[in-house]
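Self-study notes.
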Amino acid sequence: MTQKLSVDEFNKYLSKDKKGTYDAISPTAWTVAYRRTFSDIPYSKEIYDELEKNRIKNDAPDLPDEYKFLDMAPLFEARHKLINKLVLAQNYFQILDIASGLTPRGLEMTRNKDVKYVEVDLPEIIKQKRSIVQAILKKDNIPSRINLHLEIGNALSIKDLKKATKHFEKDKPIIIITEGLLRYFDFKEKTIVAKNVNALLKTFGGGWITPDIIYKRNLSPAFVANNERVSKLTGINIEVNKFSSVEAARTFFKNLGFKIQSHGFLEVLSDLVSPEKLKMSQNDVKEIIGPRIVFIMKL
Protein backbone atom coordinates (compact mmCIF):
# COMPACT_ATOMS: atom_id res chain seq x y z
CA MET A 1 0.00 0.00 0.00
CA THR A 2 1.29 3.49 -0.93
CA GLN A 3 2.57 5.48 2.03
CA LYS A 4 1.02 8.91 2.56
CA LEU A 5 3.27 11.22 4.56
CA SER A 6 2.93 14.78 5.73
CA VAL A 7 5.31 17.37 4.25
CA ASP A 8 7.57 17.22 7.32
CA GLU A 9 7.59 13.42 7.31
CA PHE A 10 8.34 13.38 3.58
CA ASN A 11 11.24 15.81 3.99
CA LYS A 12 12.69 13.56 6.71
CA TYR A 13 12.31 10.59 4.37
CA LEU A 14 14.24 12.43 1.64
CA SER A 15 17.13 13.07 4.00
CA LYS A 16 17.59 9.31 4.55
CA ASP A 17 16.36 7.85 1.24
CA LYS A 18 18.63 4.80 1.28
CA LYS A 19 17.10 3.22 -1.81
CA GLY A 20 17.76 6.35 -3.83
CA THR A 21 14.21 6.47 -5.21
CA TYR A 22 14.01 10.24 -4.95
CA ASP A 23 17.75 10.71 -5.26
CA ALA A 24 17.83 9.35 -8.81
CA ILE A 25 14.98 11.62 -9.89
CA SER A 26 14.53 14.76 -7.83
CA PRO A 27 11.11 15.43 -6.31
CA THR A 28 10.89 18.64 -8.36
CA ALA A 29 11.30 16.66 -11.60
CA TRP A 30 8.71 14.21 -10.28
CA THR A 31 6.17 16.98 -9.70
CA VAL A 32 6.73 18.42 -13.19
CA ALA A 33 6.22 14.95 -14.68
CA TYR A 34 2.98 14.63 -12.71
CA ARG A 35 1.69 18.01 -13.84
CA ARG A 36 2.39 17.13 -17.48
CA THR A 37 -0.10 14.26 -17.22
CA PHE A 38 -2.87 16.88 -17.29
CA SER A 39 -1.71 17.98 -20.74
CA ASP A 40 -1.81 16.25 -24.10
CA ILE A 41 1.98 16.25 -24.47
CA PRO A 42 2.97 12.89 -26.00
CA TYR A 43 4.55 10.32 -23.65
CA SER A 44 3.82 12.38 -20.51
CA LYS A 45 1.49 9.80 -19.00
CA GLU A 46 3.75 6.91 -20.01
CA ILE A 47 6.78 8.49 -18.32
CA TYR A 48 4.88 9.21 -15.12
CA ASP A 49 3.37 5.71 -15.06
CA GLU A 50 6.85 4.18 -15.24
CA LEU A 51 8.04 6.47 -12.44
CA GLU A 52 5.16 5.35 -10.28
CA LYS A 53 5.92 1.69 -10.95
CA ASN A 54 9.49 2.23 -9.78
CA ARG A 55 8.38 4.19 -6.72
CA ILE A 56 5.88 1.54 -5.63
CA LYS A 57 8.38 -1.24 -6.36
CA ASN A 58 10.84 0.47 -4.00
CA ASP A 59 8.14 1.01 -1.37
CA ALA A 60 8.77 4.76 -1.45
CA PRO A 61 6.08 7.20 -0.25
CA ASP A 62 3.93 9.20 -2.61
CA LEU A 63 4.62 12.92 -2.87
CA PRO A 64 2.43 14.91 -0.47
CA ASP A 65 -0.40 16.75 -2.20
CA GLU A 66 1.15 20.05 -1.08
CA TYR A 67 4.07 19.35 -3.42
CA LYS A 68 1.92 18.49 -6.44
CA PHE A 69 0.53 22.02 -6.71
CA LEU A 70 -1.64 21.53 -9.78
CA ASP A 71 -2.26 25.24 -10.36
CA MET A 72 1.19 25.26 -11.97
CA ALA A 73 0.30 22.59 -14.57
CA PRO A 74 -0.53 25.15 -17.31
CA LEU A 75 2.86 26.79 -16.76
CA PHE A 76 4.77 23.59 -17.51
CA GLU A 77 2.49 22.68 -20.40
CA ALA A 78 3.01 26.15 -21.92
CA ARG A 79 6.76 25.97 -21.36
CA HIS A 80 7.03 22.64 -23.16
CA LYS A 81 4.79 23.64 -26.06
CA LEU A 82 6.42 27.02 -26.63
CA ILE A 83 9.89 25.46 -26.71
CA ASN A 84 8.65 22.88 -29.21
CA LYS A 85 7.17 25.61 -31.38
CA LEU A 86 10.42 27.59 -31.34
CA VAL A 87 12.58 24.53 -32.04
CA LEU A 88 10.48 23.59 -35.07
CA ALA A 89 10.56 27.19 -36.33
CA GLN A 90 14.37 27.09 -36.43
CA ASN A 91 14.21 24.12 -38.81
CA TYR A 92 17.31 22.51 -37.27
CA PHE A 93 17.46 18.74 -36.85
CA GLN A 94 20.21 18.34 -34.26
CA ILE A 95 19.08 19.01 -30.69
CA LEU A 96 21.09 18.96 -27.46
CA ASP A 97 18.93 18.96 -24.32
CA ILE A 98 21.10 19.79 -21.30
CA ALA A 99 19.86 18.61 -17.89
CA SER A 100 16.94 17.00 -19.70
CA GLY A 101 15.55 15.13 -16.69
CA LEU A 102 12.17 13.54 -17.39
CA THR A 103 11.26 15.55 -20.48
CA PRO A 104 9.20 13.63 -23.04
CA ARG A 105 10.56 15.87 -25.81
CA GLY A 106 13.28 13.45 -26.93
CA LEU A 107 10.77 10.64 -27.44
CA GLU A 108 8.34 13.07 -29.02
CA MET A 109 10.69 14.66 -31.54
CA THR A 110 12.55 11.53 -32.59
CA ARG A 111 9.36 10.24 -34.15
CA ASN A 112 10.82 12.25 -37.03
CA LYS A 113 13.72 10.07 -38.20
CA ASP A 114 15.58 13.11 -39.52
CA VAL A 115 15.97 14.50 -35.98
CA LYS A 116 19.01 13.62 -33.88
CA TYR A 117 18.19 14.27 -30.23
CA VAL A 118 20.75 14.04 -27.43
CA GLU A 119 19.72 14.29 -23.78
CA VAL A 120 22.42 14.97 -21.19
CA ASP A 121 22.04 14.62 -17.43
CA LEU A 122 23.70 13.24 -14.31
CA PRO A 123 24.40 9.48 -14.02
CA GLU A 124 21.50 8.37 -11.81
CA ILE A 125 18.98 10.39 -13.80
CA ILE A 126 20.19 9.01 -17.14
CA LYS A 127 20.12 5.48 -15.73
CA GLN A 128 16.49 5.98 -14.68
CA LYS A 129 15.58 7.66 -17.98
CA ARG A 130 17.08 4.83 -20.04
CA SER A 131 14.99 2.36 -18.09
CA ILE A 132 11.85 4.42 -18.63
CA VAL A 133 12.44 4.87 -22.36
CA GLN A 134 13.13 1.16 -22.86
CA ALA A 135 9.96 0.22 -20.97
CA ILE A 136 7.82 2.60 -23.05
CA LEU A 137 9.25 1.42 -26.35
CA LYS A 138 8.82 -2.22 -25.36
CA LYS A 139 5.26 -1.77 -24.09
CA ASP A 140 4.12 0.09 -27.18
CA ASN A 141 6.07 -2.19 -29.54
CA ILE A 142 7.96 0.79 -30.94
CA PRO A 143 11.27 0.09 -32.72
CA SER A 144 14.38 1.32 -30.92
CA ARG A 145 14.93 5.03 -31.43
CA ILE A 146 18.41 5.05 -32.92
CA ASN A 147 18.19 8.84 -33.24
CA LEU A 148 17.59 9.36 -29.49
CA HIS A 149 20.73 9.34 -27.35
CA LEU A 150 20.86 9.55 -23.55
CA GLU A 151 24.30 10.65 -22.39
CA ILE A 152 25.80 11.13 -18.94
CA GLY A 153 27.12 14.62 -18.38
CA ASN A 154 27.18 17.75 -16.26
CA ALA A 155 25.98 21.09 -17.62
CA LEU A 156 28.98 22.74 -15.96
CA SER A 157 31.50 20.53 -17.81
CA ILE A 158 32.37 21.56 -21.36
CA LYS A 159 34.22 18.25 -21.70
CA ASP A 160 31.01 16.33 -20.98
CA LEU A 161 28.97 18.45 -23.36
CA LYS A 162 31.46 18.16 -26.19
CA LYS A 163 31.48 14.40 -25.72
CA ALA A 164 27.68 14.33 -25.99
CA THR A 165 27.84 16.11 -29.37
CA LYS A 166 29.67 13.16 -30.94
CA HIS A 167 26.30 12.13 -32.39
CA PHE A 168 26.04 15.35 -34.44
CA GLU A 169 27.38 16.31 -37.84
CA LYS A 170 29.68 19.31 -37.45
CA ASP A 171 28.63 20.94 -40.69
CA LYS A 172 25.02 21.25 -39.49
CA PRO A 173 23.65 23.67 -36.85
CA ILE A 174 22.32 22.58 -33.48
CA ILE A 175 19.64 23.76 -31.09
CA ILE A 176 20.61 23.66 -27.41
CA ILE A 177 17.81 23.54 -24.82
CA THR A 178 18.08 24.23 -21.10
CA GLU A 179 14.62 23.92 -19.54
CA GLY A 180 14.26 24.45 -15.81
CA LEU A 181 18.00 24.34 -15.09
CA LEU A 182 19.31 27.88 -14.61
CA ARG A 183 16.93 28.77 -11.77
CA TYR A 184 18.88 26.37 -9.55
CA PHE A 185 22.26 27.89 -10.45
CA ASP A 186 23.90 30.95 -8.96
CA PHE A 187 25.32 33.57 -11.31
CA LYS A 188 28.78 32.05 -11.41
CA GLU A 189 27.25 28.74 -12.50
CA LYS A 190 24.94 30.46 -14.99
CA THR A 191 28.03 32.06 -16.51
CA ILE A 192 29.77 28.70 -16.87
CA VAL A 193 26.74 27.20 -18.63
CA ALA A 194 26.49 30.20 -20.96
CA LYS A 195 30.18 29.97 -21.85
CA ASN A 196 29.82 26.23 -22.50
CA VAL A 197 26.88 26.87 -24.82
CA ASN A 198 28.82 29.64 -26.53
CA ALA A 199 31.70 27.24 -27.21
CA LEU A 200 29.39 24.62 -28.72
CA LEU A 201 27.65 27.16 -30.95
CA LYS A 202 31.04 28.36 -32.22
CA THR A 203 31.64 24.79 -33.42
CA PHE A 204 28.22 24.01 -34.88
CA GLY A 205 26.31 27.24 -35.31
CA GLY A 206 22.65 27.33 -34.34
CA GLY A 207 20.98 28.65 -31.23
CA TRP A 208 20.12 28.28 -27.55
CA ILE A 209 16.54 28.15 -26.31
CA THR A 210 15.82 28.61 -22.61
CA PRO A 211 12.73 29.56 -20.57
CA ASP A 212 14.89 30.00 -17.46
CA ILE A 213 14.57 33.78 -17.44
CA ILE A 214 13.34 33.93 -13.87
CA TYR A 215 13.34 37.50 -12.59
CA LYS A 216 12.26 39.33 -9.46
CA ARG A 217 8.69 40.59 -9.51
CA ASN A 218 5.62 40.74 -7.33
CA LEU A 219 4.31 37.20 -7.09
CA SER A 220 0.82 35.87 -6.48
CA PRO A 221 0.33 33.79 -3.31
CA ALA A 222 0.33 30.65 -5.51
CA PHE A 223 3.80 31.41 -6.85
CA VAL A 224 5.15 32.34 -3.42
CA ALA A 225 3.91 29.03 -2.02
CA ASN A 226 5.32 27.09 -4.96
CA ASN A 227 8.76 28.71 -4.64
CA GLU A 228 8.84 28.02 -0.91
CA ARG A 229 8.09 24.35 -1.54
CA VAL A 230 10.76 24.11 -4.24
CA SER A 231 13.30 25.64 -1.86
CA LYS A 232 12.34 23.12 0.84
CA LEU A 233 12.69 20.20 -1.56
CA THR A 234 15.97 21.28 -3.11
CA GLY A 235 17.66 23.18 -0.30
CA ILE A 236 18.33 25.96 -2.86
CA ASN A 237 17.25 29.55 -2.34
CA ILE A 238 15.58 30.27 -5.68
CA GLU A 239 15.20 33.97 -4.87
CA VAL A 240 18.92 34.74 -4.82
CA ASN A 241 19.37 33.08 -8.23
CA LYS A 242 16.82 35.32 -9.95
CA PHE A 243 17.69 38.09 -12.38
CA SER A 244 16.73 41.51 -11.06
CA SER A 245 14.67 42.16 -14.22
CA VAL A 246 14.19 40.97 -17.80
CA GLU A 247 16.52 43.73 -18.94
CA ALA A 248 19.16 42.52 -16.48
CA ALA A 249 18.85 39.04 -17.99
CA ARG A 250 19.28 40.48 -21.48
CA THR A 251 22.39 42.35 -20.38
CA PHE A 252 23.81 39.25 -18.67
CA PHE A 253 23.58 37.12 -21.82
CA LYS A 254 24.53 39.94 -24.18
CA ASN A 255 27.77 40.46 -22.24
CA LEU A 256 28.52 36.76 -22.75
CA GLY A 257 28.30 37.05 -26.52
CA PHE A 258 24.64 36.41 -27.38
CA LYS A 259 22.00 38.29 -29.34
CA ILE A 260 18.51 37.64 -28.06
CA GLN A 261 14.95 37.18 -29.26
CA SER A 262 12.18 36.99 -26.67
CA HIS A 263 8.89 35.08 -26.80
CA GLY A 264 6.06 35.04 -24.25
CA PHE A 265 4.28 31.97 -22.91
CA LEU A 266 0.96 33.51 -23.95
CA GLU A 267 1.86 32.62 -27.56
CA VAL A 268 0.63 29.08 -26.83
CA LEU A 269 -2.31 29.96 -24.57
CA SER A 270 -4.85 28.59 -27.04
CA ASP A 271 -2.95 25.28 -27.26
CA LEU A 272 -3.26 24.44 -23.56
CA VAL A 273 -5.57 21.64 -22.43
CA SER A 274 -4.67 21.42 -18.73
CA PRO A 275 -6.71 24.50 -17.66
CA GLU A 276 -9.96 22.89 -18.78
CA LYS A 277 -9.08 19.59 -17.11
CA LEU A 278 -8.31 21.42 -13.88
CA LYS A 279 -11.28 23.78 -14.21
CA MET A 280 -9.08 26.88 -14.18
CA SER A 281 -10.30 30.19 -15.54
CA GLN A 282 -8.46 31.87 -18.41
CA ASN A 283 -7.72 34.86 -16.17
CA ASP A 284 -6.02 32.56 -13.63
CA VAL A 285 -3.96 30.95 -16.38
CA LYS A 286 -2.94 34.32 -17.82
CA GLU A 287 -1.81 35.45 -14.37
CA ILE A 288 0.38 32.35 -14.04
CA ILE A 289 1.96 32.21 -17.50
CA GLY A 290 1.64 35.84 -18.64
CA PRO A 291 4.93 37.17 -17.23
CA ARG A 292 7.00 34.16 -18.36
CA ILE A 293 9.29 34.35 -21.39
CA VAL A 294 11.67 32.25 -23.46
CA PHE A 295 14.93 33.54 -24.91
CA ILE A 296 16.28 32.33 -28.26
CA MET A 297 19.95 33.21 -28.31
CA LYS A 298 22.51 33.13 -31.09
CA LEU A 299 26.10 34.29 -31.32
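Second protein, same conventions, sequence then structure:
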Amino acid sequence: MSDEPKVTTKRFIAGAVCPACSASDSIKMWDVDGVPHRECVECGYADTLNAQGQSVPSELGTRVNQAKPKAPDPQVQAVQFFPNPKLKKNPD
Protein backbone atom coordinates (compact mmCIF):
# COMPACT_ATOMS: atom_id res chain seq x y z
CA MET A 1 0.00 0.00 0.00
CA SER A 2 1.05 3.57 -0.62
CA ASP A 3 1.50 6.19 2.12
CA GLU A 4 0.88 9.07 -0.32
CA PRO A 5 -2.16 11.25 0.43
CA LYS A 6 -5.06 10.88 -1.97
CA VAL A 7 -5.57 14.08 -3.98
CA THR A 8 -8.84 14.70 -5.78
CA THR A 9 -9.31 16.79 -8.90
CA LYS A 10 -8.73 20.52 -8.53
CA ARG A 11 -11.79 22.57 -9.50
CA PHE A 12 -12.47 26.30 -9.95
CA ILE A 13 -15.15 27.87 -7.77
CA ALA A 14 -17.46 30.15 -9.77
CA GLY A 15 -17.84 33.62 -8.28
CA ALA A 16 -15.22 33.09 -5.56
CA VAL A 17 -13.09 36.13 -4.72
CA CYS A 18 -9.50 35.83 -3.53
CA PRO A 19 -9.07 37.24 0.00
CA ALA A 20 -5.57 38.48 -0.85
CA CYS A 21 -5.81 40.10 -4.30
CA SER A 22 -9.62 40.36 -4.74
CA ALA A 23 -9.50 38.65 -8.14
CA SER A 24 -12.76 36.90 -8.96
CA ASP A 25 -13.08 33.44 -10.50
CA SER A 26 -9.43 32.62 -9.73
CA ILE A 27 -9.85 30.25 -6.76
CA LYS A 28 -9.32 26.54 -7.25
CA MET A 29 -10.19 23.98 -4.55
CA TRP A 30 -9.28 20.37 -3.86
CA ASP A 31 -9.32 17.87 -0.99
CA VAL A 32 -6.33 16.05 0.50
CA ASP A 33 -7.40 13.26 2.86
CA GLY A 34 -10.75 14.96 3.39
CA VAL A 35 -9.20 18.36 4.21
CA PRO A 36 -10.27 21.12 1.77
CA HIS A 37 -7.55 23.37 0.35
CA ARG A 38 -7.85 26.42 -1.90
CA GLU A 39 -5.42 28.46 -3.97
CA CYS A 40 -5.57 31.63 -6.09
CA VAL A 41 -4.10 31.21 -9.58
CA GLU A 42 -3.58 35.00 -9.90
CA CYS A 43 -1.48 35.79 -6.81
CA GLY A 44 -0.60 32.37 -5.38
CA TYR A 45 -2.48 32.80 -2.08
CA ALA A 46 -3.19 29.40 -0.54
CA ASP A 47 -4.88 28.21 2.64
CA THR A 48 -6.70 25.30 4.23
CA LEU A 49 -10.30 25.31 5.45
CA ASN A 50 -11.29 23.91 8.84
CA ALA A 51 -14.46 21.94 9.66
CA GLN A 52 -16.52 25.15 9.92
CA GLY A 53 -15.28 26.39 6.52
CA GLN A 54 -13.08 29.08 8.06
CA SER A 55 -9.69 29.87 6.56
CA VAL A 56 -6.61 28.46 8.27
CA PRO A 57 -3.67 30.17 6.52
CA SER A 58 -0.74 27.91 5.80
CA GLU A 59 1.65 30.76 6.52
CA LEU A 60 1.24 34.04 8.35
CA GLY A 61 1.02 37.06 6.06
CA THR A 62 4.01 39.37 6.01
CA ARG A 63 5.29 42.09 3.72
CA VAL A 64 7.46 39.51 2.00
CA ASN A 65 4.96 36.75 1.23
CA GLN A 66 1.75 38.72 0.66
CA ALA A 67 0.46 39.49 -2.80
CA LYS A 68 2.20 42.44 -4.37
CA PRO A 69 0.05 45.35 -5.55
CA LYS A 70 -0.39 45.55 -9.26
CA ALA A 71 1.79 48.04 -11.13
CA PRO A 72 0.03 51.25 -12.16
CA ASP A 73 -1.38 51.35 -15.67
CA PRO A 74 1.21 53.02 -17.97
CA GLN A 75 -1.64 54.57 -20.01
CA VAL A 76 -2.88 56.58 -17.00
CA GLN A 77 -1.16 59.86 -16.31
CA ALA A 78 -1.88 62.33 -13.52
CA VAL A 79 -2.45 65.92 -14.64
CA GLN A 80 -2.27 68.98 -12.41
CA PHE A 81 -3.82 72.29 -13.43
CA PHE A 82 -2.46 75.65 -12.32
CA PRO A 83 -4.44 78.90 -12.58
CA ASN A 84 -3.13 81.37 -15.13
CA PRO A 85 -2.39 84.64 -13.24
CA LYS A 86 -2.70 86.67 -16.48
CA LEU A 87 -6.34 85.71 -16.84
CA LYS A 88 -8.42 87.74 -14.42
CA LYS A 89 -12.15 87.71 -14.00
CA ASN A 90 -13.95 90.94 -14.83
CA PRO A 91 -15.65 92.38 -11.70
CA ASP A 92 -18.58 93.71 -13.83
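Instructor comment on the second fold: The mean pLDDT is 77.
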